[in-house]
Design a protein that fits this description.
Chain lengths: ~525, ~325
């Protein structure tokens, strides 16, 4: 595609000049970050498409010395084959020969469901209109039906991967993004564990949680059900605390959250349940535990006889073989009732006022190489990935890998240099666990208060290395709390407090003997 | 992707014979231009994936009399070179016990790569190994480059160096459709078409086996660049049926077309199958003597011949290990890679 063969004919001296392909864009800044790499916002310079916004996803070069990242290649090869209005469009592939990294250029989408839900929950404080919910859902299913009929399972559907186009001729059109984990399901499938990748557990289907080794397209439909509920209530439906371990640990808490709402699965309703590894082994006594069925309808505030509830409960069917398919869901009565779904999900044809969603924050300090050009004292506004996981939310971005971004030399605060290195404080995976747990408790305001209190106490602490995910978490919290971090000093202190806090939390975690057998080492 | 109809394979990589010839000619012409300009053709692929042309030889003007200037390979000789390494590719895949699908994918990558480049520009041995490596990655049968290199005692860095240029040359169209699956499908279908008794199931099994071997042969020709995988599979099954005589093949073809309410007629389909057969019949493997001759020519095109060999070697060893630079100059024969 595009410039892929541009090197065939000319041997240019590849010095430090801007690569040719980059010159066709005006780079505006970073809009997202994930384990796969970075996402940038850019504008096309050329006269044909002048000013058109493009999201450029930069893949990190894989570090295991084994060539081009398989995730990147998989995503590219799938995107090359597919074309659908409700699936993100790959415009071009660029190769940066200097560091062998791949850049994928997509049509830019201003919004995503994660941000839209958050906006409604935290800012406007009212639910998303039923027209918009229905239109989102219909388009999501429409895109998914296309993928499934092309034998592709997405495997990582979550609100942040469902993009929504901003102003323009495609306004309000849903685009499914992030095919890094997508699979063709006629290909020999490997289990999730073999992939060694983290997938958000909140949207994970029960058969996978119970250890099913093979995927079917039904796993995507479960995720759609969870997203549907989240669109209605503005809260994730099943917010389990993730057990972070390799390979593929048993996620008891996530199942617990599901069973509490949907009741205990039974062999009558789900005959193949007996063959699932975790059910068979039953190490955690999941079979014996009794749950009071809270009732899905009370959680999502839907009358049990409504079409919306009927559709939702069919998506959240335990038995994957009985779960509604995308094609069947599109035919559901819910979509034939008023209000009818539309192409522009954001603006109803009945022309009630459209909600003004905020645009994506753009971090203008980061260039394509991923290096920050400003002082480290500037807190990184962790904008949201265009087609990736959201920093600080849904647990997608927390890295368990080696830490790479030491930020904030302590000289900035005029402190003595200590030799204490944050890295050897507690194992990083344990930190992550603690952070996750704490996030899920939802008591950020309280935590923030403690943090401020702890500033004084911890001011002697000599922190030099600050892990990147602390920064993300902090800016996440500050955004949630509408707090502005102005002073670099306060910022650094807070980050330290946060680090301390995680260790305190970890202790608590260990004390209540959480369902973790050991703190696994980061790989 | 199950849908071949909307695939990049169908849209971008099925050609007419004319288009194919044009592409081979154009690639050869580009190599010849390089040869005229620089006195050698081999592209250097650096660790970072950048390409560079051979260094212009200062004395090339002086040497430019007809006798000393390297002669480019002919179209036929280029084909022989590809044929040789395609056989090697199958051999390597068999030695690793890779599934058929991987072998087929790697072969198709190799064929597509040499639509863009001449064997004079990229060493087919390296490209062959990289194609296998890439096919493993794509087909989710990941083998590390090191493992692959070790298994055939080759420098794995050469595999990695070429990875990006291979993807680029394939224009990132990496999903390919091999005829093996189609054969499985057609054999299943035949079971319904001519119900056999239980004791005759082995007949279908035999036709299946022979057809797979036929496809192996077809995959070594240009046919995969000219015909969709379904037709390749049918051609293989027809040949196989001629051996085992299980069913009336023409009647079977009619039944397929009528069920698909295809726009094509049986005679069109038969014409395609005949043409695939003729590709297989026309397949020629180069003789030992041919190979020696081609290799001598190729070596001089690569700028590795006699007088400046030492200089080149010296230059190469700056980038690559000694071992690999020696190997680049090996004469391929039936016994080594």
């Amino acid at each position: 595609m595009g410039d892929t063969n541009s090197n065939n004919g000319n041997n240019t001296n590849n010095n430090n000049k801007k690569p040719e392909w980059l010159q066709q864009y005006d780079l505006l800044g970073k809009i997202g970050e994930g384990t796969y790499g970075l996402v940038f916002l850019a504008r096309i310079k050329s006269s044909t498409n002048r000013g058109k916004s493009i999201a450029i996803k930069k893949f990190k070069q894989s570090k295991d010395g084994d060539g081009v990242s398989p995730t990147a290649i998989r995503e590219i090869m799938l995107l090359r084959e597919i074309s659908h209005e409700n699936v993100v469009k790959l415009v071009n592939v660029h190769i940066n020969h200097v560091d062998m990294s791949l850049y994928l250029a997509f049509d830019y989408a201003e919004h995503d469901l994660y941000e839209i839900i958050r906006h409604h929950r935290d800012k406007v404080n009212h639910s998303i209109s039923s027209y918009t919910v229905k239109s989102f859902l219909w388009q999501l299913l429409n895109g998914l039906n296309y993928l499934h009929s092309n034998w592709i399972i997405h495997r990582d559907l979550k609100p942040s991967n469902i993009l929504v186009m901003g102003e323009g001729d495609e306004q309000g059109v849903v685009k499914i993004a992030d095919f890094g984990l997508a699979r063709i399901y006629q290909a020999p499938l490997k289990s999730l564990a073999d992939n060694g990748v983290v997938v958000t557990i909140w949207y994970r289907a029960p058969e996978l949680l119970l250890g099913a080794k093979h995927y079917t397209s039904a796993v995507d439909m479960w995720a759609v059900g969870c997203i549907f509920a989240e669109l209605l209530t503005l809260k994730p439906l099943f917010q389990g605390a993730e057990v972070k371990a390799t390979p593929n640990p048993f996620q008891l808490d996530q199942l617990d959250k599901i069973f509490k709402v949907l009741g205990h699965p039974t062999l009558e309703k789900w005959p193949t349940l007996a063959s699932l590894p975790h059910w068979q082994q039953d190490v955690q006594h999941i079979q014996g535990h009794k749950y009071d069925n809270t009732g899905l309808n009370t959680v999502v505030h839907l009358p049990p006889k409504s079409a919306a509830y009927d559709l939702l409960s069919k998506m959240l069917e335990y038995d994957p073989r009985k779960r509604i398919t995308a094609a069947q869901a599109l035919e559901h009565e819910y979509f034939r009732n008023d209000p009818l779904p539309g192409r522009n999900a954001l603006v109803s044809p009945n022309a009630d006022k459209a909600v003004n969603y905020p645009t994506r924050p753009v971090d203008r300090t980061t260039d394509f190489e991923g290096t920050t050009s400003l002082q480290p004292s500037q807190p990184v506004s962790s904008g949201n990935a265009v087609s990736g996981s959201i920093p600080g939310a849904h647990g997608g971005t927390l890295r368990s890998g080696p830490r790479q971004m030491p930020v904030g030399p302590s000289t900035a605060t005029g402190e003595k240099k200590g030799h204490w290195n944050g890295d050897d404080w507690i194992p990083s995976t344990a930190e992550i666990k603690a952070l996750r747990l704490w996030r899920h408790t939802g008591s950020e305001r309280y935590i923030w208060f403690i943090m401020l209190e702890l500033i004084r106490y911890l001011s002697e602490c000599k922190v030099e290395m600050l892990c990147h995910h602390y920064l993300e978490t902090l800016s996440f919290i500050s955004r949630r709390q509408n707090l502005k971090i102005k002073d670099h000093r306060v910022y650094l202190f807070s980050v330290r407090c946060l680090s301390a806090l995680t260790s305190i939390l970890l202790l608590q975690v260990l004390m209540v003997s959480w369902e973790v057998k050991e703190a696994p080492t980061a790989h | 992707m199950a849908d071949f109809q909307t695939s990049t394979h169908r849209a971008n990589w099925i050609f007419t014979t004319q288009e194919l010839d044009d592409k081979y000619n154009a690639a050869r012409q580009r190599a010849i231009q390089t040869l005229e300009k620089y006195g050698a053709t081999l592209m250097e692929v650096d660790v970072d994936g950048t390409l560079s042309y051979p260094e212009p030889q200062i004395n090339s003007k002086d040497n430019a009399d007809k006798h000393s200037r390297p002669k480019p390979l002919t179209i036929e000789e280029e084909r022989y070179m590809r044929v040789f390494y395609e056989n090697k590719l199958q051999e390597v895949c068999n030695n690793f016990h890779f599934p058929h699908k991987i072998q087929a994918t790697a072969l198709i990558y190799f064929k597509r790569f040499y639509l863009q480049w001449s064997v004079m520009q990229h060493h087919p041995k390296n490209i062959m190994l990289t194609c296998i490596y890439a096919a493993c990655k794509i087909e989710e049968n990941h083998v590390s480059a090191e493992e692959l290199g070790k298994g055939i005692s080759q420098d794995h860095q050469l595999i990695l160096n070429n990875e990006m240029i291979v993807y680029q040359s394939l224009e990132f169209d990496l999903i390919v459709y091999a005829p093996y699956r189609s054969i499985d499908g057609f054999v299943n279908d035949m079971e319904e078409f001519c119900p056999v008794k239980d004791d005759q199931l082995h007949v279908l099994k035999a036709i299946h086996e022979t057809a797979r071997m036929e496809v192996d042969k077809i995959m070594l020709t240009d046919a995969p660049l000219l015909f969709p995988p379904g037709q390749l599979a049918l051609a293989a099954l027809r040949s196989s049926n001629e051996v085992h005589k299980v069913l009336d093949f023409e009647r079977y073809l009619r039944s397929i077309l009528s069920r698909q309410s295809s726009a094509h007629t049986v005679s069109e389909l038969i014409e395609s199958l005949n043409s695939i057969d003729s590709w297989v019949r026309g397949y020629k493997f180069p003789s030992e003597k041919d190979l020696k001759h081609i290799n001598r020519k190729l070596k001089s095109c690569w700028g590795l011949s006699s007088h400046d060999e030492n200089k080149k070697r010296e230059k190469k060893s700056k980038h690559k290990s000694k071992k690999s630079s020696n190997e680049t100059q090996n004469v391929p024969s039936h016994t080594d890679l």
